[in-house]
Each structure stands twice: as C-alpha cells, then as structure tokens.
Write a structure and sequence with these properties.
This protein has 249 residues and is α/β, with parallel strands linked by helices. The strands form two sheets. Strands 1, 2, 3, 4, 5, 6, 10, 11, 12 and 13 form a ten-stranded mixed beta sheet that branches. It is globular, with a radius of gyration of 19 Å.
Length: 249
C-alpha cells in the first residue's frame, strides 16, 4: 500500500505546485477582466477595474461584450505559468484566444495620433505587418518591413485591412520572450461585427476600444485577465482579483 500512497501524494503535490501563484503585482492599478462561459465559448464580457489606495478594486463603468477566438480559449504564456494546468494550451494557428494574465503593450491605429491615450502609440501603415512565422527571428512581432534588410518569414498579417478591425488596438504581451509555435500577435482590437469571432484576439465595439485607449495608463501597469468564468472564480481570492460582475456601479 505504501507505493500507491506515495504516488498519490506526488500527484497531489504536483497539482498544488501548478496552482500556486503570486498575487497580482502591487503596482497594477488597472485591469481588464474578460470572462467567458467555457473554454469553447467565442463570446465573453470585458469589465475594466481600477485599484484604489485601500487595495480594493472598483469598476470604472467601462464594460462591453467581446468576441474571442473562433475555437474559444486556451492557456497562453503570460504572468501565469500554465504548464501542468488542466485545459487546452495555445499553439500557433489554433484560432484560440490566450487564457491567463497578461501585460499590455503598445497601442496602435490607423490615425497618425491616438485619441488622447497615455499608452505608447504606433500609427499603422501598409509597411507594418504582424509576423506569425515561428521560424522567423521576428516571430510574434509587429514590425515595419521596409526597415528589414532581409525578410526571413513566409507568413505575416497586414495591419491595414478593409474591415477596419485594426483601426484601434492594443498589443497583448503574450508569449514573450517568443517561444516558437506558442501563438503570436495577440491584440485587443475593434470587432468586425457582434457575430464574428476572431482568430485569437479579443475584439469589441469601436466606441469601447477608444474608451479603453483613453483610460489605460502605463504608469498604472494595466493587466488583461482572461479566463473561463469558473476558473476565474476559483482564482479570485488567491489572486485578490476584482469580483467580476459584482462591483459595478
């Protein structure tokens, strides 16, 4: 009986290690919470929260439906080490949006100047592409291809599109440093329409995207928390997360 008991204890111990996380960084005073009904859901809800000096999270009133990957969610590479966690794990081309906790990077858009955002801003042009070829040294980067002496990628997405999905957006810092094949070029951006899912990003109405750009502040170290609602509720107390859906004003 000793061997099965030891094996059982090792399995429990490994599971506990996988589910032991740090608290959210103390400097994080803004977060976007996206919850979905399940791993396979293509729709969810985003609520923006800010943390007050007393440490409590309050809703800002910015709230919107969102569309996610057409194949749902999968664990991505962010602040949470997802190795060993149950559930799908994101790979390149799986059409899944990344689940986990992620920093936010550069804002971007078609206009030369952003709508009063404090985020670093990249005006897009037809020279700028998002490289999704995992063999490229530019994998998981948005780059100006006119500044690259020798292209080494076979596939990259143009950022100026007829459906205007990238009219406004923010880079989600997923899979950094880049691990080949773990998924690339994830953004918050404008949706095509309320019915159409994405290939792995999180999309919303243009008015809400602009509202977020005006609210986000890199000095507040904003984070994106994106999870199926069941897992979000399990992590809530451990991570001291906002109580999504219950602190709205």
């Amino acid at each position: 009986m000793r061997l099965p008991l030891i094996v059982m204890l090792l399995i429990i111990s490994a599971s506990a290690r996988a589910m032991t996380f740090e608290q959210l960084p103390s400097g994080c005073r803004q977060c976007l919470v996206v919850t979905t009904p399940s791993w396979s859901a293509t729709e969810g809800r985003l609520v923006a929260f800010e943390r007050k000096s007393n440490g409590l999270w309050n809703s800002t009133g910015i709230e919107t439906p969102v569309r996610l990957g057409r194949a749902g969610l999968a664990w991505g590479r962010g602040l949470v080490k997802a190795d060993g966690l149950l559930g799908p794990h994101k790979i390149e081309g799986d059409n899944k949006a990344p689940a986990g906790i992620f920093q936010l990077g550069t804002a971007f858009g078609y206009a030369q100047h952003a709508p009063e955002t404090k985020m670093p801003y990249l005006p897009l042009s037809r020279r700028i592409v998002a490289v999704d070829d995992s063999r490229s040294r530019f994998y998981n980067q948005v780059i100006d291809q006119s500044k690259v002496a020798k292209k080494d990628w076979q596939s990259a997405e143009e950022m100026i599109l007829s459906d205007n999905r990238y009219k406004w957006g923010v880079v989600v810092r997923h899979n950094l440093p880049p691990k080949p094949g773990a998924g690339s070029c994830i953004f918050l951006h404008v949706w095509k329409n309320p019915e159409t899912p994405t290939t792995g990003c999180t999309a919303m109405p243009e008015t809400r995207m602009i509202e977020l750009l005006q609210w986000l502040d890199p000095a507040n170290h904003p984070l994106l928390i994106q999870l199926p609602v069941r897992i979000y509720n399990e992590w809530n107390k451990q991570w001291h997360l906002p109580r999504a859906g219950s602190e709205r004003r």
